[in-house]
């Protein structure tokens, strides 16, 4: 049976037809599509704000290339070797483990020598830093080793038993003009102190000289602003930086 056409009775007896329904999708579906589009734009915007870890990305890419047998181009070689990303990753993991182990050993040595009040150990991915306050190493204005310097340097030597590390000895001063007539500048004083530590280590161990070097920084790298006597005392220090063998800059 055909649907009966519905008409409306208007005032005056005139009948009119109701408006025809518009075609297309239902209104709720248009609203839903708008919401999904906005959500998509929101998550794309969040993704654009994230920082990509380039190092991990390269490691992952190298592993995938190696698994698929993709070779890397070497313009200086006659043959193209396979990617060595796995070797580099294993080396990085080994270095990180050895850095953590060396830092723990040095802390144990410091406690055993009862030097915790004047020594600090810190580490990061580049190496291990062993720092002694100047009061443990040298008298003011002097490059002659103090009474407790031998215990401190014995700890340094013990840390060098791990042959996978080189050592940088760094001398630092507080910026005040040295009172000694022998050292008329902080550069000379800081370099002399670093060299004195190096000579002691060479004389009391069998560590090869090519695994160590001494550097004087004067007051160029302070830990704190030299505005108070307490800060200046902290800036007067000797640092022993253990860096893994194979680093291009040490």
Give the topology, please.
Elements: E1 8-9, E2 15-16, H1 27-49, H2 54-68, H3 85-112, E3 119-124, E4 127-133, H4 149-159, E5 165-172, H5 186-203, E6 212-216, H6 229-235, E7 237-244
Parallel strand pairs: 5-6
Antiparallel strand pairs: 1-2, 3-4, 4-7, 5-7
Based on the model shown, name its key terms:
about 250 residues; alpha+beta; 60s Ribosomal Protein L30, Chain: A; five-stranded mixed β-sheet; two-stranded antiparallel ribbon; 6 helices
Structure characterization notes:
The chain is α+β, with helices and mostly antiparallel strands. The chain has helices at residues 27-49, 54-68, 85-112, 149-159, 186-203, 229-235; strands at residues 8-9, 15-16, 119-124, 127-133, 165-172, 212-216, 237-244. It has a domain at 86-244: 60s Ribosomal Protein L30, Chain: A. α3 packs antiparallel against α4 (149-159).
């Amino acid at each position: 049976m055909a649907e009966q056409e519905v008409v409306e009775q208007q005032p005056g007896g005139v009948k009119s037809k109701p408006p025809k329904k518009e075609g297309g999708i239902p209104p709720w579906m248009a609203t839903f599509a708008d919401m999904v589009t906005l959500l998509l734009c929101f998550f794309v915007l969040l993704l654009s704000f994230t920082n990509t870890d380039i190092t991990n990305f390269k490691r992952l890419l190298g592993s995938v290339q190696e698994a698929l047998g993709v070779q890397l181009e070497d313009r200086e070689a006659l043959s193209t070797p396979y990617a060595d990303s796995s070797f580099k990753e294993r080396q990085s993991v080994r270095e990180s483990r050895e850095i953590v182990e060396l830092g723990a050993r040095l802390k144990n040595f410091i406690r055993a020598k009862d030097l915790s009040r004047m020594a600090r150990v810190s580490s990061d991915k580049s190496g291990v830093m062993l720092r002694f306050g100047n009061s443990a190493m040298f008298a003011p204005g002097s490059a002659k080793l103090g009474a407790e310097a031998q215990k401190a340097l014995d700890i340094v030597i013990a840390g060098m038993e791990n042959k996978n590390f080189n050592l940088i000895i760094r001398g630092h001063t507080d910026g005040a003009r040295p009172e000694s007539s022998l050292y008329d500048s902080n550069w000379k004083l800081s370099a002399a102190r670093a060299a004195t530590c190096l000579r002691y280590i060479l004389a009391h161990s069998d560590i090869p000289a090519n695994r160590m070097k001494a550097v004087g920084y004067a007051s160029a790298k302070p830990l704190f602003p030299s505005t108070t006597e307490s800060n200046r005392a902290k800036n007067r220090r000797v640092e022993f930086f253990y860096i893994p063998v194979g680093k291009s800059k040490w």
